[in-house]
Design goal:
single chain
Length: 291
């Protein structure tokens, strides 16, 4: 039997993850009283049960009983019942935004302040995050992207690393992304914008890619950037970081930055040590403004 404890920050997607696992054939139980977990696990792990895949949702709604969960999980391990912990997380800013959009109250926000509820929840869940087998930061994930990550782990049984790298192109004239961890400026490269036949194209078009990568300095930059990220990634993993945003910017975020972001993504995407996703924040803004 495969037993998964699904937990994490309120608003980070725990309920969504349970629904995804249920659709994948898992027997899902949400907010099972903590004191019942070991008995439930024993029953489903017995040879008499037809259930082979179980997901149990646990969150701070368990109240004071949550403090007993650590001992209960230790007992399961002693009994030889193998379990995995999936922890859904998101940045505080994203969690606050989600709560405000849904107009829901945080379960621990007794004073009405969401930020205080989030802070208290992080304190209560620290032991679960510390022991988690999988930590997924949903701050920038769409539901379909979360489904893809869960599919890799719980359906395809692929090895999972907790770091997700987002390669993000942007335009400096629209502002530097606030969530960027690393920012690189490629405005030193020749600009296709000044060639009328290339102006309306983007870095997703072959003509622009050939133009930008036709300069040796673009290849040198890409090699050095690739090398630096490969050096940084294992160190970020050791630090416990689970989300890395690499932002590459040019003037409008349409030509040079898109090309280099695409090329970096191609180099990183086949690695097994981390997940990689690609975003082009400003690629269509000039067109939307009629330029």
């Amino acid at each position: 039997m495969r037993l998964v404890i699904v937990t994490g920050m309120s608003g980070a997607g725990r309920a969504t993850a349970l629904k995804i696992l249920e659709d994948a054939g898992y027997f899902c139980v949400d907010n099972l009283p903590v004191l019942f977990i070991d008995k439930f696990a024993e029953l489903t792990a017995s040879g008499n049960s037809e259930i082979t895949k179980v997901a149990i949702g646990i969150d701070v709604r368990s109240g004071k009983a949550l403090s007993e969960l650590e001992q209960i999980l230790e007992r399961l391990a002693v009994q030889g019942i193998v379990y995995e912990i999936l922890f859904l997380d998101a940045s505080d800013d994203v969690l606050v935004k989600r709560y405000k959009e849904t107009r829901r109250m945080h379960p621990l926000a007794e004073s009405g302040r969401i930020e205080q509820g989030i802070s208290l929840e992080r304190e209560r869940l620290v032991f679960l995050k510390k022991d988690a087998d999988y930590i997924i930061d949903t701050s920038k994930l769409l539901v379909r992207e979360l489904k893809q990550e869960l599919d890799k782990i719980f359906i395809q049984n692929r090895e999972f690393k907790n770091l997700m790298i987002t390669v993000l192109s942007f335009g400096f004239k629209y502002g530097i992304p606030g969530d960027a961890d690393l920012v690189f400026d490629v405005r030193f490269l020749p600009n296709p914008y000044y060639y009328e036949e290339l102006r309306k194209l983007t870095g997703n078009d072959r003509q622009i890619q050939d133009f930008v990568m036709g300069y040796e300095m673009a290849h040198i930059f890409l090699d050095k950037l690739d090398d630096m990220i490969r050096f940084l990634v294992p160190n970020y993993v050791l630090e416990g970081k689970n989300q890395l945003v690499v932002a590459i910017g040019c003037t409008g975020g349409k030509h040079r930055s898109v090309t280099l972001a695409n090329k970096l993504y191609e180099r990183l995407q086949n690695q097994n040590d981390y997940g990689v996703k690609l975003e082009h924040r400003d690629i269509g803004k000039d067109a939307a403004r009629g330029k």
